[in-house]
Amino acid sequence: MAVGASSAAAARPAADLAVVDSNQDDPRMWWYEFATSEIGWNPRVNVLLPDDYHTSGRTYPVLYLLHGGGIGQNFTAFDALGIREKTAGRPLIVVMPDGGSAGWYSNPVTSHTGPRNWESFHIHQLLPWVESTFRAHTSMDGRAVSGFSMGGFGALKYAAKYHGHFGSVSAHSGPASLRRDFGAVAHWANLSSAAVELGTGTVYGVPWDEARVSADNAVENIERYRGKRVFLAAGTSPEPIHINPGDSINETHVLAGQREFKAALDNAGIAHDSHEAPGGHFVRPELLQADIDGVVATLRGA
């Protein structure tokens, strides 16, 4: 179903992506369920439309907003955090996809639960589908990616690895360094994915696929953030982050990794907007609002 599709130049969605269910009863928040060969179950996506989408005829920038890890974390996470109110009156489409309880926005090295290629689903299927279905800008300066925790990691990864896709990137308590502290975050990604996502399979393999770790590691890809809006937020309290029983990492690791990343950006002369606030691992409403306002101010207008 086309909903005021963008120009004919918009990318076409992959042939093996199909909408199997949807609901457009709400004037702004529409959801879709997909069948795709990249994921072994049917992932869902919330698409939040601007207030005037149905009457304006305009084309809008798009924010891809990625949820964190943990049992029960899914495409509805940011609706529960008030995303409708935070975008009211703003000319912005917000796309909030499933990313798995511990999918790490990656194509894993191994999976024993069927395909879990979240990276391919988001970049090669979902993004083209959005741009062929909605009146969405289709250039780098019309797209942003942001996320919380695991989703913040995914945002940093996608913005660097797919450099020409996103003009703005944000990480709310998102890890920016996989190798520091003896590889704490990379080990955490492997342990959590093995426990709740991949049936003992892992994102990075055992031993690690070092090339994959480097490709996903923000601090090893500093130049790929040049020319982008970069927004970072982290807590200063050592609150544990839990994805599954017996597996936790400390917000201290996240904060230290973001500081390492910020220092590398500074050394390279790459501008960024960074915030450290009291408390542990959670989305700070005021910083999420500031991030959304910054996205709207930065991206190509409606």
TrEMBL record:
Matching Gene3D superfamilies: alpha/beta hydrolase
Keyword Aminoacyl-tRNA synthetase: no
Alphabetical keyword list: Hydrolase
InterPro entries linked: AB_hydrolase_fold, Esterase-like, Mycobacterial_A85_antigen
Pfam families linked: Esterase (PF00756)
Superkingdom in the source lineage: Bacteria
GO function term, MF aspect, one: acyltransferase activity, transferring groups other than amino-acyl groups
Keyword S-adenosyl-L-methionine: no
Cleavable signal peptide: none
Protein name, UniProt field: S-formylglutathione hydrolase FrmB
Taxonomic source organism: Prauserella isguenensis
Phylogenetic lineage: Bacteria, Bacillati, Actinomycetota, Actinomycetes, Pseudonocardiales
